[in-house]
Protein backbone atom coordinates (compact mmCIF):
# COMPACT_ATOMS: atom_id res chain seq x y z
CA UNK A 1 0.00 0.00 0.00
CA UNK A 2 1.06 3.62 -0.36
CA UNK A 3 1.28 6.63 1.92
CA UNK A 4 2.28 9.78 0.08
CA UNK A 5 5.61 9.15 -1.63
CA UNK A 6 6.14 5.84 0.19
CA UNK A 7 5.18 2.30 -0.78
CA UNK A 8 4.85 -0.14 2.12
CA UNK A 9 5.24 -3.89 1.70
CA UNK A 10 3.99 -5.78 4.77
CA UNK A 11 4.98 -9.45 4.96
CA UNK A 12 4.19 -12.37 7.25
CA UNK A 13 7.63 -13.63 8.20
CA UNK A 14 6.05 -16.62 9.95
CA UNK A 15 4.83 -17.92 6.58
CA UNK A 16 6.86 -19.42 3.76
CA UNK A 17 8.67 -16.86 1.60
CA UNK A 18 10.31 -19.12 -1.00
CA UNK A 19 9.50 -18.35 -4.67
CA UNK A 20 7.06 -21.28 -5.00
CA UNK A 21 4.97 -20.15 -2.01
CA UNK A 22 1.86 -17.98 -2.23
CA UNK A 23 3.61 -15.20 -0.32
CA UNK A 24 6.75 -15.57 -2.46
CA UNK A 25 4.67 -14.91 -5.59
CA UNK A 26 3.01 -11.94 -3.86
CA UNK A 27 6.39 -10.47 -2.90
CA UNK A 28 7.64 -10.57 -6.49
CA UNK A 29 4.51 -8.76 -7.75
CA UNK A 30 4.59 -6.21 -4.91
CA UNK A 31 8.25 -5.23 -5.31
CA UNK A 32 7.67 -4.63 -9.03
CA UNK A 33 4.70 -2.37 -8.24
CA UNK A 34 6.69 -0.46 -5.59
CA UNK A 35 9.40 0.58 -8.06
CA UNK A 36 7.37 3.65 -9.08
CA UNK A 37 7.45 5.01 -5.51
CA UNK A 38 10.08 7.41 -4.26
CA UNK A 39 10.42 5.58 -0.92
CA UNK A 40 10.17 1.80 -0.56
CA UNK A 41 9.66 0.35 2.92
CA UNK A 42 9.20 -3.29 3.91
CA UNK A 43 7.70 -4.34 7.25
CA UNK A 44 8.01 -7.80 8.75
CA UNK A 45 8.15 -9.39 12.17
CA UNK A 46 11.49 -11.22 12.10
CA UNK A 47 14.79 -9.45 11.39
CA UNK A 48 16.66 -10.98 8.44
CA UNK A 49 20.04 -10.14 9.98
CA UNK A 50 19.50 -11.13 13.58
CA UNK A 51 21.55 -13.68 15.43
CA UNK A 52 22.64 -16.60 13.24
CA UNK A 53 20.96 -18.94 15.73
CA UNK A 54 17.42 -17.92 14.74
CA UNK A 55 15.87 -20.32 12.28
CA UNK A 56 13.75 -17.90 10.22
CA UNK A 57 16.48 -15.41 9.27
CA UNK A 58 18.24 -17.60 6.68
CA UNK A 59 15.05 -17.98 4.59
CA UNK A 60 14.47 -14.23 4.69
CA UNK A 61 18.08 -13.55 3.68
CA UNK A 62 17.90 -16.11 0.88
CA UNK A 63 14.47 -15.27 -0.60
CA UNK A 64 13.33 -11.78 0.48
CA UNK A 65 16.43 -9.60 0.92
CA UNK A 66 17.71 -10.03 -2.67
CA UNK A 67 14.31 -9.00 -4.06
CA UNK A 68 14.20 -5.90 -1.84
CA UNK A 69 17.75 -4.94 -2.81
CA UNK A 70 17.08 -5.31 -6.54
CA UNK A 71 13.85 -3.29 -6.26
CA UNK A 72 15.61 -0.42 -4.48
CA UNK A 73 13.96 -0.67 -1.07
CA UNK A 74 15.59 1.77 1.35
CA UNK A 75 14.12 0.74 4.72
CA UNK A 76 13.11 -2.53 6.40
CA UNK A 77 11.22 -2.30 9.70
CA UNK A 78 11.14 -5.37 11.93
CA UNK A 79 10.28 -6.42 15.47
CA UNK A 80 10.67 -9.70 17.36
CA UNK A 81 13.88 -8.72 19.15
CA UNK A 82 13.00 -6.73 22.30
CA UNK A 83 15.37 -3.81 21.79
CA UNK A 84 16.05 -1.03 19.27
CA UNK A 85 18.72 -1.33 16.64
CA UNK A 86 19.36 0.56 13.40
CA UNK A 87 21.85 -0.98 11.02
CA UNK A 88 24.39 0.72 8.89
CA UNK A 89 23.20 0.88 5.30
CA UNK A 90 23.68 -2.51 3.65
CA UNK A 91 23.28 -2.70 -0.13
CA UNK A 92 21.11 0.42 -0.07
CA UNK A 93 18.85 -0.71 2.80
CA UNK A 94 18.67 0.43 6.43
CA UNK A 95 17.26 -2.24 8.78
CA UNK A 96 15.55 -1.01 11.95
CA UNK A 97 14.53 -3.39 14.73
CA UNK A 98 11.84 -1.85 16.96
CA UNK A 99 10.76 -4.40 19.54
CA UNK A 100 10.44 -1.95 22.41
CA UNK A 101 6.78 -2.04 23.33
CA UNK A 102 4.77 -4.41 25.49
CA UNK A 103 7.05 -7.31 26.32
CA UNK A 104 10.09 -7.50 28.57
CA UNK A 105 12.95 -5.46 27.16
CA UNK A 106 16.17 -7.30 26.44
CA UNK A 107 19.62 -6.59 25.14
CA UNK A 108 20.56 -6.16 21.49
CA UNK A 109 21.50 -9.66 20.31
CA UNK A 110 24.39 -10.47 18.06
CA UNK A 111 23.60 -9.22 14.58
CA UNK A 112 25.12 -10.31 11.32
CA UNK A 113 25.51 -6.72 10.03
CA UNK A 114 27.05 -3.64 11.73
CA UNK A 115 24.83 -1.32 13.78
CA UNK A 116 24.62 2.45 13.46
CA UNK A 117 22.59 2.86 16.67
CA UNK A 118 21.32 0.66 19.52
CA UNK A 119 19.15 1.24 22.56
CA UNK A 120 18.67 -1.43 25.21
CA UNK A 121 16.69 -1.71 28.40
CA UNK A 122 14.13 0.99 27.48
CA UNK A 123 10.60 0.97 26.10
CA UNK A 124 10.07 3.34 23.19
CA UNK A 125 8.62 4.01 19.77
CA UNK A 126 9.83 4.86 16.29
CA UNK A 127 8.18 7.76 14.47
CA UNK A 128 8.51 8.09 10.69
CA UNK A 129 7.78 11.46 9.09
CA UNK A 130 7.31 10.89 5.37
CA UNK A 131 7.87 13.88 3.07
CA UNK A 132 7.79 14.27 -0.71
CA UNK A 133 11.47 13.36 -1.25
CA UNK A 134 12.45 11.39 1.86
CA UNK A 135 11.68 10.52 5.44
CA UNK A 136 12.98 11.18 8.92
CA UNK A 137 12.89 8.51 11.61
CA UNK A 138 13.20 9.23 15.31
CA UNK A 139 13.28 6.71 18.14
CA UNK A 140 12.09 8.13 21.45
CA UNK A 141 11.98 6.26 24.75
CA UNK A 142 9.07 6.53 27.18
CA UNK A 143 10.99 9.08 29.26
CA UNK A 144 10.64 11.48 26.29
CA UNK A 145 14.29 11.38 25.24
CA UNK A 146 15.06 11.04 21.54
CA UNK A 147 17.71 8.31 21.37
CA UNK A 148 18.17 8.04 17.60
CA UNK A 149 17.39 10.10 14.50
CA UNK A 150 18.02 9.21 10.87
CA UNK A 151 17.02 10.29 7.40
CA UNK A 152 16.45 8.48 4.14
CA UNK A 153 16.29 10.24 0.76
CA UNK A 154 14.40 9.06 -2.28
CA UNK A 155 16.24 6.81 -4.68
Throw out a few tags for this protein.
155 residues; alpha/beta; seven-stranded mixed beta sheet; globular
What would you say this structure looks like, in words?
The chain is of the alpha/beta class. The protein is 17% helix and 35% strand. The chain has helices at residues 22-34, 57-70; strands at residues 2-3, 6-10, 39-43, 75-78, 84-87, 94-98, 115-119, 124-131, 134-141, 146-153. The strands form two sheets. A seven-stranded mixed β-sheet has the order 1-2-3-4-6-5-7, with helices on one face. β2 (6-10), α1 and β3 (39-43) form a beta-alpha-beta unit. α1 (22-34) runs parallel beside α2 (57-70). It starts with a strand and ends with a strand. 32% of the residues are buried. The mean pLDDT is 89.
Amino acid sequence: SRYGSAAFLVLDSNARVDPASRQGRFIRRAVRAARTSCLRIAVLHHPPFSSPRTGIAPALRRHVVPLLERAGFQLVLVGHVHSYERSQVRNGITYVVVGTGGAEIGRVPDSTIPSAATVTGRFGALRLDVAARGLTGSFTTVDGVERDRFGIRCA
